[in-house]
From TrEMBL, chains A, B:
Sorted UniProt keywords: DNA-binding, Transcription, Transcription regulation
GO molecular function, one term: DNA binding
InterPro entries given in the database record: HTH_LacI, LacI/GalR-like_sensor, Lambda_DNA-bd_dom_sf, Peripla_BP_I
Taxonomic classification: Bacteria, Bacillati, Actinomycetota, Actinomycetes, Pseudonocardiales
Cross-referenced Pfam families: LacI, Peripla_BP_3
Organism from which the protein derives: Saccharopolyspora cebuensis
SMART domains (alphabetical): HTH_LACI (SM00354)
Name of the protein: LacI family DNA-binding transcriptional regulator
DNA sequence: ACCTGCGATGTTTACGTACACATCGCACGG
DNA sequence: CCGTGCGATGTGTACGTAAACATCGCAGGT
């Protein structure tokens, strides 16, 4: 292995001067710098990350925790986060945490493997998360927030999103409206439900319990829940789903019963994943500005790494209803009493 | 920060004994070990990864390079790879390399940030890849192989997969068969095409140039290419697509023209991503054993990290045709001359 | 011509861990 | 009863870098 000492010897300078060139310090004469750079190239020198980290206590690496990478929303978010991190000169370590919620990511943070963590799927039950935040570890939440947690958070106004969908569906004449709720824990799911439910009630069409199905964030569960819902005597004329993956499942549930979207039932999703715009689904949904959000989260996290005592900030981005074919045409009040 | 020295002081032993306990060395008396473990807990000690890496030259981290994480195949592969790495006690650093093909991943390898690299989307043009392999860097290819490269590779028999599709389509009576080719560079796309093309020729129905569309691996390109193909005077009765993402694009292209799959045209994909089994697509495709492949790739890579001089191995897994609704029923020779 | 001051470079050291080697003590055999 | 050997533990050091401090030389002012 070639070390900075070897380069120094080759260039006829001290190791420290090599180190200075490496860091782009201005305190090096142009001629010397050129000599050192030439020696680096000649020897094929590569700085050793571990040694540098040991001295500087920086890894230039951020850990990102995701609950389920096969939910297409997360790859899209990861791409945006990866881009934002790249722009900031940081690498990304990925934890796809099936259930535990990133315990090993927190360990990595304690060990100094990463400089900070970005949780995209935090919940109240994420073990050790609150504890790590209290210890002052640089942790930021992206996408899913946590009300009780005093750390940097970047979210969207999921309550407003849910309300917008309620306004839209009631405004287009629907009265018997179904809801495919997500899991209980994620704040995203809870806020969307709250906004949707409250606004429906305000508009005089409160959600009817029999038309609410609880389930996970998976296609399969949503599909079978929708089959149940649509097989009822008085099926809903529109179904709002806690996220796009479940909305796609809802469409497929309808398709599997030979029903058509939107002719027989309207479907609305949430997140605007790429597939929602594909012809086979053409799904009305709510868009989050994930690129801006990712940049904001990275900015907050890096700022916290530099200054652990700065006050935590919560940034909430607006979201936007995107109307597509899954809610086209007029609703079908004719289907009310069969 | 609590160091092993602090723990040693607290436990009344030397720093070395703490280190030994940490490594699970047997050369520590049970009583001593208990005292050290208690001191660790009490002090909240966390071993420092950078210092350990500096001594051991190991990071227990593997870099994974992916070309496009928004192609749903890669999240599925990443999940499998992540699981295999987790089982082997390794972390995963992710590079989503838009174009450059993982140059910065190779830098990280040189710097010692990762112990090895797993390329899932290598091509001949991946800059620096061949060079790094020749320098003996631990690099393995998963999914996409590279014929000229002397390194560990885990692939599927894409030629056989292409042939199987040709056999299937001709065997079910299709003669005017279209092909949506992937990009030129990936070995996966090339091998699938070769197998498909050669077998069709052997069976007496060579691929007709006008029915071949070249494009990328994206939904949009595939969609518009399919619209062109199906708008011809003599459209194909079946279309084989270089991967599932393009097959979904092909289905959507057909849908956008008001055509039905499989009634108007059969569509076959490749990779068996989760969405292919959803009702709206129900796509016939070719399945790769990605879990087994991931484990194999991780095993090979870790073995190489331990012994850089071991001979490179190439493991080729079989793939399996999965027939679904996109190729159901009889083909439509009636559509031949319109 | 001499002193001052600053820019350029060198010297020393520490970061936290694990390896090589040294040492200690005790059990067992002759 | 003493020597041998081995298991348990300690001592010293090196990994490669960057920070703090020291030093050197030269330009500019008086």
């Amino acid at each position: 292995m070639v070390t900075s000492r070897d380069v120094a010897r080759l260039a006829g300078v001290s190791q420290m001067t090599v180190s200075r060139v490496l860091q782009g310090s201005t305190k090096v004469a142009a001629g010397t710098r050129d000599r050192v750079l030439a020696a680096m190239r000649e020897s094929g020198y590569q700085p050793n990350a571990a040694a540098r980290t040991m001295r500087t206590r920086r890894t230039a690496t951020i850990g990102v925790v995701v609950a389920d990478i096969t939910n297409p929303f997360y790859p899209q978010l990861l791409e945006a986060v990866g881009r934002a991190l790249g722009e900031a000169g940081q690498r990304m370590v990925l934890w796809n945490a099936p259930d535990s919620g990133g315990t090993s990511a927190l360990e990595a943070l304690d060990e100094g493997t990463v400089d900070g963590l970005l949780f995209t799927t935090a919940t109240e039950t994420s073990p050790g998360l609150a504890d790590a935040v209290e210890r002052g570890q640089p942790i930021a939440l992206l996408h899913r927030g946590l009300d009780g947690l005093d750390c940097d958070q970047v979210t969207t106004d999921n309550v407003a999103g849910g309300r917008a969908v309620a306004d839209y569906l009631v405004g287009t004449g629907h009265t018997r409206i179904g809801f495919l709720a997500g899991p209980d824990l994620p704040a995203t799911a809870r806020h969307r439900e709250r906004g949707f439910r409250d606004r429906l009630a305000e508009l005089g069409h409160p959600l009817a319990d029999p038309l609410v199905a609880r389930g996970g964030f998976s296609h399969d569960v949503a599909r079978s829940a929708t089959r149940d819902l649509l097989s009822r005597q008085d099926p809903p004329t529109a179904v709002f789903c806690a996220n796009d993956l479940t909305a796609l499942g809802a469409v497929d549930g309808a398709v599997s019963l030979g029903k058509r979207v939107p002719a027989d039932v309207w479907v609305v999703g949430y997140d605007d994943i790429a597939m929602t715009s594909w012809d086979s689904y053409d799904l009305t949904t709510v868009r989050q500005p994930i690129a801006d959000m990712s940049r904001a989260a990275v900015r907050l996290l890096l700022a916290r790494i530099d200054d652990r005592d700065r006050p935590a900030r919560v940034e909430e981005f607006p979201c936007e209803l995107v109307v597509r074919g899954s809610t086209a045409g007029t609703p079908q009040p004719s289907a009310v009493d069969t």
